[in-house]
Specification:
globular; about 40% helix; alpha/beta; about 15% strand; catalytic activity; CMP_dCMP_dom; Nucleoside deaminase; 8 helices; Cytidine Deaminase, domain 2; binds zinc ion; disordered N terminus; Cytidine_deaminase-like
């Protein structure tokens, strides 16, 4: 576990760059979707797009293995959905919740679509640390850039230690491509 994890904001206020109480149900939904992905033989990632009033607009999970398309990340699908279905001003105030921090491809799509805040349960650095601990090779062909590396103006919150632990367990189940039941 990274040392710089920050948990729920102590003030309880909904600051944009911290994870607040209203964010938690959406993050839990992301983890449910990630679990569905694992059951289907895909990688354990799920994401939810929520409007400024807290209404869920769209959701998706990873579908890389089941479709054979390595770009089928849920964050990328939500950016495309938003670009197709929402006017620019609604995209800017929408929040993308996700079980694992956006990869550089998805962060770029998020930026091009002009979406708003990102909230993640676990960070990309955590995922890399877990894989290193397990001796699982990093297969991504991309540079390990954070969302802020790709999108310097992004408003980002996460990880949440308790939820990141759930993501870690899902990743453990998926670690060797043996994603059914172990
Ligand atoms: Zn991605």
């Amino acid at each position: 576990m990274a040392l710089n994890d920050h948990d729920l904001s102590e003030s309880g206020t909904d600051r944009a760059d911290t994870v607040g109480e209203t964010d938690l149900p959406h993050l839990r939904r992301c983890i449910e979707l990630a679990a569905e992905a694992v059951e289907a033989g895909d990688w354990p990632f799920g994401s939810v797009l929520v409007d400024a009033d807290g209404k869920i607009l769209a959701e998706d999970r990873n579908r890389e293995t089941s479709t054979g398309d390595p770009t089928r990340h849920p964050e990328f699908e939500l950016a495309r959905w938003a670009a197709t279905h929402l006017p620019a001003e609604e995209r800017a105030t929408a929040t993308v919740y996700t079980s694992g921090e956006h990869c550089p491809m998805c962060a770029a799509a998020h930026g091009w679509a002009g979406l708003g805040r990102i909230v993640y349960a676990s960070s990309a650095q955590q995922a890399r640390d877990w894989k290193a601990e397990w001796g699982v090779p990093i297969t991504s062909p991309l540079s390990p850039l954070s969302v802020q590396d790709v999108l310097p103006g992004a408003v980002v919150a996460g990880p949440v230690a308790e939820l990141a632990e759930q993501v870690r367990e899902l990743m453990w189940r998926s670690r060797n491509g043996d994603r059914a039941e172990d």
